[in-house]
Amino acid sequence: MLRKNLFITLLLLAVMVILAACGGGSSEDNKTASGSAESNGDVRTLRISLGLNDQHPLYKGSEKFKELVESQTDSLKVEIYHSGQIADDRSAIEMLQFGTLDITIPSSAPFVSFVPEYGVFDLPFTLTDTEMVDAVLQGEFGETLASKVESQGIVQLAWWENGFRQLTNNSKPINKLEDLDGLKIRVMENETHIASWKALGTNPTPMAFTELFTAMQQKTVDGQENPYPSILLEKYPEVQKYLTETNHVYSPFLFLFSKKVWDELTPEEQEIIRNAAVEAGEYNRELTRQTATESLEELKKQMEFTKISDEELVKFKEAVQPVIDEYKSQIDSEIVDQYLSEIEKHSK
Ligand code: TK8
């Protein structure tokens, strides 16, 4: 009996030794194997983190960027991660600063805590039409702002478009200022948006975009505000009944690149990426505007639609004027004056 147990033990030991020898490389080999996908000297993979889903013009614009970059060099590959798979806007921006993410394209509002001057876009009812938007963002002012970003370890390569923001809620149709009283509205994590929606009589709740749909589903907020493409393509009619055209703020999308990563690229790679970001941005803007028009028509079939009249909008603007005055004094006055004079120049 003893002899038999000894034999079985030795046999098991022999089997384990053979399996270990055939079981693949050491953790070092695995690390080398897995590491090669990331750090292969020949090809660098650029990862883009987006908050919106893969139906949105933001994703389509990113696909255009990928196509443009990969068609011009073999040294770069682009991977697009949508719906906040990697991170929400603020965390993604922080990852750019650490160099653990290459690209993210958020709305300007969450970026204000990194570069306060971007707060000009949150001043309600200032940018009022796409001609004005293009004149302000594609001109000298857009370049002036973008030049302030590098101190934060980030490079802004282009202005893309989120669009004019509209209100949805699950409580009632909104036709006049008083209809807003007490509504719990999710707002972006931005002081001006919080103050503006408070001044309009609501109870604003700052929240990352990635938490928004669940919050509406669970009725922890009554409503939110975003451009028509996001409202339709993120399926908000499933959890929101009323849609109101307010055009209260225009949100740009910022094509942001990690400066840590940017500085490792060759001048040729930098030129390819910068040109691709600008060209894909033109494509994104056109597609976003077309999608906004189409989305509104579809949303009118799915939601109860109201539009705030010009007369009533005067009351909305009066209500938020103290917010504009307060936050104008908090943002670099030179930048605010340059922004408002550009707007004045292009007002109809
Ligand atoms: C997407 C967000 C979104 C913004 C918001 O990442 O948070 O409501 O409008 O587009 O940046």
Automatic annotation (TrEMBL):
One of its GO terms (biological process) is transmembrane transport. This is ABC transporter substrate-binding protein. Pfam families: DctP. Its main location: other. It comes from Ureibacillus sinduriensis BLB-1 = JCM 15800. The lineage of its organism: Bacteria, Bacillati, Bacillota, Bacilli, Bacillales. SUPFAM superfamilies: Periplasmic binding protein-like II. Belongs to the bacterial solute-binding protein 7 family. Keywords: Signal, Transport. GO terms for cellular component: outer membrane-bounded periplasmic space. The keyword Transport applies. Residues 1-20 form the signal peptide. InterPro entries: DctP_fam, TRAP_DctP, TRAP_DctP_sf. It is found in: Cell envelope.
